[in-house]
Design brief:
Blueprint (H helix, E strand, L loop, with lengths): L1 H28 L10 H29 L8 H17 L10 H12 L3 H4 L3 H14 L3 H28 L3 H14 L1 H25 L6
Helix pairs in contact: 1-6, 1-7, 1-9, 2-4, 2-9, 3-7, 7-8
Length: 219
């Protein structure tokens, strides 16, 4: 029970951390001072950080949507489903897992490049500056919280649902698999709402910081 409580707390921490970063990003994007040439590299680094977090967010949402909206009415539903499950399990246990979580080490490298030394110029309040510094520090050391968020809110639901769907498909009852798909949609509704909201906000920040940094959007 204690371990489970720690896992849930860590997962919640991962959600809150991303939300807090987005709120900070919105504040920074409004700073008139960021249009100055001396802060162009810092704005570019903020763009890079937002893009990395957005990419991980979208990759996670993409995998959830792949099964939440799987078409069991398709003539090739069984083979398509088994192929998708095989890909998911390879991702689940292989290096592809990294695509669902941004690298905290990379975030730290970018932060200390041009942002950390500029925060003192961006905030007149020492409290606000220290708050921003603390948040960036948390981002550079958030691996456990992010992994627990994925385990608690994404993988646990998918693992359970896909195992049951496989049984249904093996016995030729696509209707049973469809029922499980609908249940999965309900079970992951809140997680998807978070991901979509984060995705919208992060997309906005990516565009704003790219404009402030005067750099083209890159893939």
């Amino acid at each position: 029970m204690i371990t489970e409580a720690i896992t849930v707390a860590a997962a919640k921490e991962g959600l809150e951390l991303i939300q807090q970063f987005i709120e900070l990003g919105k504040e920074l994007a409004k700073l008139p001072i960021l249009v100055l040439a001396q802060y162009q590299l810092a704005a570019q680094d903020l763009y890079e950080i937002c893009k990395k977090i957005l990419k991980a967010n979208e990759n996670t949402a993409r995998w959830l949507h792949r099964f939440r909206y799987f078409d069991f009415k398709d003539a090739n539903a069984r083979s398509n489903f088994l192929s998708a499950v095989q890909e998911y399990r390879a991702l689940r246990t292989g290096p592809g897992f990294k695509e669902l979580k941004f690298s905290c080490f990379d975030i730290g490298q970018i932060y200390y490049r041009h942002i950390s030394s500029k925060l003192g110029s961006w905030f007149s309040s020492s409290y606000e500056r220290e708050k921003a510094e603390g948040l960036f520090q948390k981002l550079t050391d958030a691996d456990l919280a992010l992994v627990e968020f994925l385990e608690e809110n994404v993988f646990s639901n998918l693992d359970s649902a896909l195992t049951k769907m496989e049984v249904e498909m093996d016995t030729g009852t696509a209707e049973g698999a469809e029922k499980l798909r609908l249940e999965l949609k309900l079970e992951t509704k809140e997680t998807v709402q978070y991901l979509e909201r984060f995705g919208d906000d992060l997309s906005d920040l990516v565009l704003k910081f790219a404009k402030l940094a005067r750099v083209p959007l890159t893939l």
